[in-house]
Amino acid sequence: MTDSVSSPARAFERRPVFSWCLFDWANSPFPAIILTFVIPAYFAQAVVGDAATATSQWAFMTGAAALVIAFVSPILGSIADQGGHRKPWLVVFTVILAVGSALLWFVEPDAANAVLLLWLVGISVVAFEIGMVFYNALLPTLVPVSHVGRVSGWAWGLGYFGGLVAMILVLFAFLKSDPPLLGLDKDAAEHVRIVGPVVAVWLAVFCLPLFLWTPDPVGRGLPATAAIREGLAVLGRTLRALPRHGQLARFLLARMIFTDGLNTLFAFGGIYAAGTFGMSVEQVLMFGLVLNATAGAGAFAFGWIDDRIGAKPTILIGLVAITALGVPLLLVETTLWFWILGSALGIFIGPVQSASRSMMARMTPPGMESEMFGLFALSGKATAFVGPWLVGLIAFSYGSQRIALATVIPFLVIGGLLLLTVRESDRPENFSG
To answer: Where does the pLDDT of residue 84 fall: very low under 50, low under 70, confident under 90, or very high at 90 and above?
Structure first.
């Protein structure tokens, strides 16, 4: 297998790289506004009206979505590698994401609409995560291996700041404005429900540069039927061969565990702030602004650190810091300390996510980018239902958000300890099996 360093199409070209990074800016308002801060708080306070019940229902929705993602993403990634281009797949899932977000406008503040909200968010999460398989797969074909860490960090950082700008827009144009922009009715929660269409329009506008200017390397170019047949066969061979390639398999296992903890922590941040600290939707969004600012700064700064010291040490630094800050975050009683610890924790979330992607890009054999990032997505979602479902079960059983979210910490610790045993390398391993 040819070393990815010597693979062609590795010249650093500014416009394609910037366009690729801008896609993170385009889609990041979805996890920030829809998944973490505004819609979860709205769901808990205005739709369901009970924090523990909302936490439980949200947990089972995110867990079910994770199961779908885990099953579908590696299959589609493998098929895309055997077939034609990857960007058409990204277009399809971007459209689904935009439509699902826009339809949140119709979720009025009534418990009868809880199921509708959960379905819309669940479908949108699946589209978001599967789209990221094809987006991430473009990275190792776009830049030389020496720049993978910083470009991945730039994109994560740009994404956090994209979420930040979108949240500022939502906060001051709709949530804090009286009357809200467009004359929206606050009694019907239209000033909150508008965030869905805002996210959809933002995504539609800022995704265009990637589709226009970022090159789309062709897979093997097989016809659709042959691509499906060969893609499934290759995926099977890859999964069977994976245990024989200990370093990559161990990395994916470690990431599977600590990412489950990170995703669970992020997914319930808004509901935790609203339920335990009684923060309003506006206050939760303001906390999200600060968190995104610190996370974006961390992703930018650690992008260069990643290229200097390696992805593995960068991930480990982040996991240790998140654990050290997360424990007191679950114990504090005052909103002030919640703000302080949560803001500091944000600095290290972006670097862990970004460095995980750059480590995978360095270890990916050329020509298998979508397939490998399908497995990368699988490692992030194969057990991703465990964390949310565990949180949901404990929240339902004990009626305590603090006890429920404490289950996140062991995921971070165990994943970090397993990562310690991985030998980082920028040479791809042979998967010809």
So the answer is: low
From the number of C-beta atoms within 10 Å of its C-beta (0-12, 13-18, 19+), residue 331 rates as exposed
- Provide the pLDDT for residue 165: 92
pLDDT single digits (tens) 166-197: 999 999 999 988 888 888 999 999 999 999 99
Alpha-carbon distance 121 to 101, whole Å? Answer: 7
Query: What is the distance between the alpha carbons of residues 247 and 397, in angstroms, rounded to a whole number?
Result: 39
Burial 9-42 (b: 16+ CB within 10 A, else e): ebeeeeebbbbbbbbbbbbbbbbbbbbbbbbbbb
pTM: 0.76
Report the alpha-carbon angle 162-164-168, nearest 5.
120
77 residue type, one letter: G
Number of neighbours of residue 182 by Cβ within 10 angstroms:
11
pLDDT at 206 over 70: yes
Question: For the chain, what is the largest distance between any 2 Cα atoms, rounded to a whole number of angstroms?
Answer: 63
75 vs 143: CA distance, rounded Å: 25
End-to-end CA distance of the chain: 11
What percent of the chain shows pLDDT beyond 70?
88
Alpha carbons 126 and 92: distance in angstroms, whole number: 12
191 DSSP assignment: H
Chain mean position to CA 8: 29
More confident residue, 374 or 293: 293
The mean pLDDT value for 226-243 works out to 74
Q: Which domains does the chain have, with CATH numbers?
A: 13-419 (1.20.1250.20)
Cis peptide preceding 179, ω within 30 of 0: yes
Distances (CA, A) of 131 to 71, 120, 164, 192: 14, 16, 21, 26
What HEC string does 373-404 produce? HHHHHHHHHCCCCHHHHHHHHHHHHHCCHHHH
* Mean pLDDT value of segment 344-367: 81
Query: What token pair was written down for 334?
Result: 């005052």
| Whether residue 121 has pLDDT greater than 50 | yes
413 or 373: which leads in pLDDT:
413
Rounded Cα distance between 21 and 42, Å, is 30
Cα(44)–Cα(57) distance, integer angstroms: 10
DSSP string, 350-376: HHHHHHHHHHHHHHPPTT-HHHHHHHH
In this structure, what DSSP letter does residue 48 have? Answer: I
